[in-house]
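Exercise: predict the structure of this protein bound to adenosine-5-diphosphoribose.
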Amino acid sequence: MKKLVVLTGAGISAESGIPTFRDAGGLWEGHRVEDVASPEGWHRNPELVLDFYNQRRKKAREVQPNRGHLVLAQLEDHFNVVIVTQNVDDLHERAGSSTIIHLHGSLFESRSTADEKLIYPISGWELNVGDVCEKGSQLRPNIVWFGELVPMIEVAARHVSEADIFLVVGTSLHVYPAAGLIHETGYDVPKFLVDPNAADWPGISNLTVIRDKASTGMELVKAKLLELI
Ligand code: APR
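Solution:
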């Protein structure tokens, strides 16, 4: 089977009811990104940060995968699919995809502030001040914040460099290093971009841009991908 590597962003979860980031006028659910998604914000006000992610987690548990997630899962019948997602929700997992790299971490994991290797599942929706790791240190969301290193980027880049086909769905490609992954693809590799507001990418070879929502756009892409088997 050919290897299909897919980079997804907030746009693929938009039709499930999870708002994207940059469509919201620079505010993220009413907060400045640096207040709720940076090490400095955490240092200043951990309660605010924990509450922000508690609300995101609660919301993510209430919504369902949409057609875009489901079509990606179905593509495993025809391709060796690796999903690299910037999203911290679990909608790809719940849609049935089997290989998912969460570049920016997961809403459903906490990690120790004393030892970043201590990672725990969050089964409910709340993480609070006073919830500690086995070493007694406060737990934080296992999410990659602005200014932090992206531990999975090298694994993701290796997959992208091995891709026979590369697909990007629902990301503004504003945030690095994720946005740079497209440059790891081979020149001849067919590339597809599904996003209703996709920019032109004149420097990218073999690129097909589908300006459509993830749900309908993924059906169109699926038809094009099946021609490449
Ligand atoms: N289907 C597909 N794409 C959509 C849809 C939809 N229904 N609705 C909106 N979009 C597109 C927008 O046009 C935009 O290009 O989704 C993209 C969302 O872009 P961003 O809000 O910037 O989200 P993303 O690219 O995932 O952000 C990257 O930034 O805030 C950080 O860590 C956070 O992972 C996030 C990263």
